[in-house]
Amino acid sequence: MEADIDRVLISRQQIAQRVRELAEQITGRYRQCPGGLVIVSILSGAIIFLADLIRQLPLPMKIGLVGVSSYPGCNTTSQGPELLRQLRVDIRNRHVLVVDDILDSGRTLRYVLDELRQAGPASLSVCVLLQKPGKFPPDLAPDFVGFDIDDVFVVGYGLDYDDQYRNYPDIAVLKRELYAAADKAKTAGA
Ligand code: XMP
């Protein structure tokens, strides 16, 4: 895996520090929240961020998961969101915090928020670990953000390329030839 990495963008130590800070902000916001919180997270990229974040939130909560795929296989551009798993937690009149790995084009988040709004939550906020400023519409700006990054396709800390590299502990960019090989194969197969 190490041999495939071009450069580390955000180290595991920086991530750990930022997750602690986000947890403090979120705790401050929801401490007085009657009836507790429902965290809705989006599979699969957010799994590691979710696991680290929720263990630092000393708040009553339920966790719900939705499955959405936007970058299937060897894609580094959004193919449009497809719902793979529905939410199984009732969020009517509950305070909901959506936790996601990365806000890129915003298509996935828009899709998930539209679905959740139909279920009548008391409030709906968003926390993302990474965002790419300028790539998503301004009305999607999240309430809590870990890091701004440039418009590069990143892997690690839950984020994948063709379902690989999720277990890489830092957030990193792959060597260009790995993406290029996949792009070439896709063009040949198109
Ligand atoms: P959109 O473009 O809909 O993207 O905002 C949201 C989801 O797509 C995945 N995604 C990425 N995955 N590196 C990845 O490994 C990236 O740079 C990247 N950009 C988007 C991710 O699952 C995110 O929730």
Offer a quick outline of the entry.
The chain is an alpha/beta fold. It is built from four helices and nine strands, in the order βαβαβββαββββα. β5 (95-103), α3 (107-117) and β6 form a beta-alpha-beta unit.
Give structural notes:
The chain is globular. The chain starts with a strand and ends with a helix. Strands 4-3-2-5-6-7 form a six-stranded mixed sheet, with helices on both faces. A three-stranded antiparallel sheet has the order 1-9-8. It has four helices and nine strands; from the N terminus they run E-H-E-H-E-E-E-H-E-E-E-E-H. Helices cover 27% and strands 29% of the residues. The chain is of the alpha/beta class. Bound molecules: xanthosine-5'-monophosphate.
Task: State the shape.
Answer: globular
Secondary-structure-derived class: alpha/beta
Distance between the termini: 28 Å
Compressed to H and E, one letter per element, the order equals EHEHEEEHEEEEH
Q: Could you describe the largest sheet, including whether it forms a barrel?
A: 6 strands, mixed
* Cofactors, ions and other ligands in the entry: xanthosine-5'-monophosphate
> What's the overall average pLDDT, rounded?
91
User: Helical proportion?
Assistant: 25-40%
**Helix segment count?**
4
Strand content: 25-35%
Spatial strand arrangement across the major sheet: 4-3-2-5-6-7
Number of strands: 9
